């Protein structure tokens, strides 16, 4: 070991091995090369990682340490590892009694090959410590003359490990970036908030296999279902923490998702505004045409009724026309007023009760839950409820109706129930224009409408619409 030329040759061979590799598996070859070029007979390398200090390479282990698949080398309870973890091992040390050998001897296990002590040196650079490099010979308890060579080799290995980790980080970043590129393309193609959330969730599960994606509530937008924000710490990576590349890629995907979400929200607002403007124009047209015609029918029928007093049968028919046209005029005025008024101010139940009163129904209302309902969903619920109340007034032969609204965590349920005449031909009702419109409005929000009825047993219309990215739950 004292021959400088031998030491230089050893260092040269070790350097060549390390420079040719970008993988930590090279440490096994480095250790074997070092043992073959020196008088040492055995050696092993420990590296520190997120799981602790672990054996990553060994050569020529005595049977007492190699038995049971090197189980004795897998623990951290030894002198050199303890010193390393405590920060007390900062340079090559000549004499360390091997606690693993001592334990084997205490247990009566043979096969130590005369090894009792080993030299140890930390694998480190000026910036970081990576692990330990241990070597030993038979029947030797001092390695003072070899420390300089050991420190030189350890510095070579430490420098190589630093380079390898940088390479691995860059490779990981490149791989994640390529995968995230596919995800961002899918995010860009999402056309609804629900499909956006599903795309993000599936994409993150592919980026982080074995992870469990959890969602935190973001600031809810009253115009649509906001899926909220997501954070790296909310992904369970099965006990391991995030690498720098994983965290940065996650933040990029999260930010891209937020931009896509805001874009969809803006699009929904623009569509809702366009619909409101169109309905407002339509309401004005109704006011200028149909509303005036109905008003004329009301006035004319009232005048004819006065002239038909002497003809009871005719008067009865004219009075009927007057009542029907008056009711139609009330509905038309209510519709025009509401369309011009724009956004609901009192909520769905209050508006439905007001509408029921307008058409002559006595309406009881009940509400449960506190989940916020987006305006677009609220508007659809009102339209569906309005059509249902109209059907009660028209077909149920009863003037009492009950309306309930349940605001559950992931869905909202509107129910309109009457105890009227009911009907048997549900299929016929299912294909009616009114119900088709109600179902179309519900399906726009991934919801559904069901109708149940019995002769003389009343009718129930139930509307279920998911909110905050939820799904409709069956009864």
Structural class by secondary-structure content = alpha+beta
Q: Give the number of DSSP strands.
A: 10
Portion of residues within helices: 40-55%
* β-strand amount: 15-25%
Span from first to last CA? 82 Å
Low-confidence parts? 217-237
And the CATH topology of the largest domain? Beta-Lactamase
Number of domains: 4
- Trace the largest sheet across and list its strands: 2-1-5-4-3
Tell me, briefly, the overall form.
rod-shaped
CATH superfamily of the largest domain: GAF domain
CATH architect. name of the largest domain? 2-Layer Sandwich
Largest sheet: 5 strands, antiparallel
Overall mean pLDDT stands at 81
- The Cα radius of gyration reads 40 Å
| Structure annotation, total helices | 14
**Given this structure, which CATH class of the largest domain is correct?**
Alpha Beta
Search tags:
475 residues; alpha+beta; Beta-Lactamase; 4 domains; 5-stranded antiparallel β-sheet; 5-stranded mixed β-sheet; 14 helices; 10 strands; 53% helix; 16% strand; rod-shaped
Structure description:
The strands form two sheets. This protein has a five-stranded antiparallel sheet with strand order 2-1-5-4-3, sandwiched between helices. A five-stranded mixed sheet has the order 6-7-8-10-9. It is built from 14 helices and ten strands. The chain has four domains: 165 residues, Beta-Lactamase, CATH 3.30.450; 79 residues, no CATH class; 54 residues; 130 residues, Histidine kinase-like ATPase, C-terminal domain (Heat Shock Protein 90). The longest helix has 45 residues. Helix content is 53%, strand content 16%. The chain is of the alpha+beta class. A hairpin with a 3-residue loop joins strand 9 and strand 10. The chain is rod-shaped and about 140 Å long.
């Amino acid at each position: 070991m004292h021959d400088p030329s031998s030491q230089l040759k050893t260092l040269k061979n070790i350097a060549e091995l390390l420079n040719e590799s970008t993988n930590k598996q090279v440490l096994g070859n480095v250790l074997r090369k070092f043992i073959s070029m020196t008088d040492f007979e055995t050696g092993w390398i420990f590296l520190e990682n997120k799981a602790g200090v672990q054996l990553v390479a060994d050569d020529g282990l005595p049977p007492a340490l190699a038995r049971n698949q090197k189980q004795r080398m897998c623990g951290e309870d030894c002198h050199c590892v303890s010193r390393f973890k405590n920060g007390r091992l900062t340079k090559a040390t000549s004499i360390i009694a091997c606690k693993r050998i001592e334990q084997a001897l205490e247990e009566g296990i043979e096969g130590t090959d005369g090894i009792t002590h080993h030299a140890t040196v930390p694998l480190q650079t000026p910036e970081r410590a990576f692990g330990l490099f241990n070597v030993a010979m038979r029947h030797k308890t001092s390695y003072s003359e070899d420390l300089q060579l050991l420190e030189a080799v350890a510095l070579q290995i430490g420098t190589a490990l630093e380079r390898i980790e940088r390479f691995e980080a860059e490779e990981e970043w490149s791989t994640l970036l390529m995968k995230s590129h596919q995800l961002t393309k899918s995010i860009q193609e999402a056309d609804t908030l629900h499909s956006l959330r599903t795309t993000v969730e599936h994409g993150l599960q592919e980026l982080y296999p074995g992870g469990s994606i959890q969602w935190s509530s973001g600031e809810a937008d009253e115009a649509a279902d906001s899926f909220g924000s997501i954070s790296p710490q909310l992904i369970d990576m099965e006990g391991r923490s995030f690498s720098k590349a994983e965290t940065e890629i996650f933040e990029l995907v999260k930010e891209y998702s937020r931009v896509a979400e805001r874009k969809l929200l803006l699009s929904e607002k623009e569509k809702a505004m366009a619909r409101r403007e169109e309905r407002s124009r339509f309401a004005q047209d109704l006011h200028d045409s149909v509303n005036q015609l109905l008003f004329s029918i009301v006035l004319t029928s009232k005048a004819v009724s006065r002239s038909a007093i002497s003809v009871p049968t005719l008067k009865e028919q004219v009075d009927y026309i007057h009542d029907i046209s008056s009711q139609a005029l009330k509905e038309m005025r209510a519709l025009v007023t509401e369309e011009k008024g724009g956004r609901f101010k009192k909520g769905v139940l209050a508006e439905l009760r007001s509408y029921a009163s307008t058409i002559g129904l006595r309406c009881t209302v009940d509400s449960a839950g506190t989940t916020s309902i987006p305006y677009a969903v609220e508007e659809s619920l009102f339209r569906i409820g309005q059509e249902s109340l109209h059907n009660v007034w028209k077909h149920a032969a009863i003037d009492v109706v009950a309306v309930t609204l349940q605001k559950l965590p992931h869905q909202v349920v509107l129910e309109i129930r009457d105890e009227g005449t009911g009907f048997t031909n549900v299929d016929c009702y299912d294909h009616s224009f009114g119900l088709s419109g109600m179902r179309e409005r519900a399906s726009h929000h991934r919801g559904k409408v069901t109708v149940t009825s019995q002769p003389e047993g009343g009718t129930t219309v139930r509307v279920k619409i998911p909110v905050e990215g939820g799904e409709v739950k069956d009864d």
